[in-house]
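Human:
Care to share another protein and its fold?

Assistant:
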Amino acid sequence: MMARRRRIGWVCWIWVLLLWSCVPQPVKEPPRESRFELIHPNDWPVLHDDMKLALLQPAIEKSLLYFQRIPADRTFPLGDAQISASHLKETLLLFLEHLATGRLDPASLSQSFDLYGIRPDTGDGGGLVTGYYEPILDGSLRPDVMFRYPLYSVPPDLVTIDLHAFDPEKFPAGERWVGRLQEKRVVPYFTRLEIDGMGKIEGSDCHLAWLKDPVDAFFLHIQGSGVIRLADGNHHRVGYAGANGRPYRSVGKHLIERGLLPAEGISMQVIRDFLKAHPELQDEVLGHNESYVFFRWVEQGPVGSLNVVLTEGRSIATDPKYQPRGALAFLETTSPRISQEGEWVGTEPMSRWVLNQDTGGAIKGLGRVDLFCGTGESAEWLAGRMKYPGRTYFLLKKQAH
């Protein structure tokens, strides 16, 4: 009997081994290489800053305000690596010491800091640098025959779902979905065409102000903040408060693909002029971009995604999936050059220290950077023509080993 049981046991083990060998085994993925590389001190850029350094310290202090409000152990991505808020804060404080003494050359900084740049073989090594600005627009706090196009605050039925709170392993911090409730189900929020063209939130009582031109309202959405100039001479600032969660789609690319505008020389001014010259196409073209921005009144501005005031020429917007919020970086790119008569006469190199203090619906990808160019018409001129290759380097305080 015992021998028979042993034979049965061996047969069972053999069957288990045979079945196990037929089951596909999980394949371990090789470790992902970081998309940022440590730059050897001999290969650092010259670090020539083409702006007055007077505005650099206040810009750094804005990032420090942000880091004071968040937990020190919160982490942010630098490519595939994670950098703590305390490390970023220490970097800024140490850099301020160098700034006070004027020791900003590569030889001095490389003793205390490491510099990271995007690896060339990622496909994003060159990157693309564009510009944005804060427009000043005529508006009204009440609608009338002239002012008919509303700016909305966040609608009461808009719902934001924090995916990280449901599954921290699957979703990174900050990963969210936006929608609305419909019969106890969360569905995507209304598109731009549904909001502006079909009046889906007209009865929501969330109007902030009214503008006289739908194209101006559209570009205010793109910029994310602006100044509303009232008839009595008073000015009120609006800042980004939220969005409908729909994907951003470039209307410039749409116009090019339809053969309505040439790819060469495309700019914000060219798109604006085309739309104002073809009012019959405005709804269709603007509706191509489903993304819709909601605003709030702000005392100071413009305010970036860190809820700090942006600094002209020093604040940048990047994709928070790849670049650490609030971090110090060095930007190298090209800038359009204007003559004393106000005419575009070519380009010139641009290089300066910048702070990563904003995000944007159109700013997606490892090498994308949007430079805040300031407020008003001159800033609009510069931002509308900024679209050049560039490279961004992030500075971090050396860690003790």
Summary: Confidence is low (pLDDT under 50) at residues 1-33. Residues 33-134+301-401 form a domain with the Barwin-like endoglucanases fold (CATH 2.40.40.10). Residues 45 and 173 are 33 Å apart (CA to CA). The chain is about 25% helix and 30% strand.
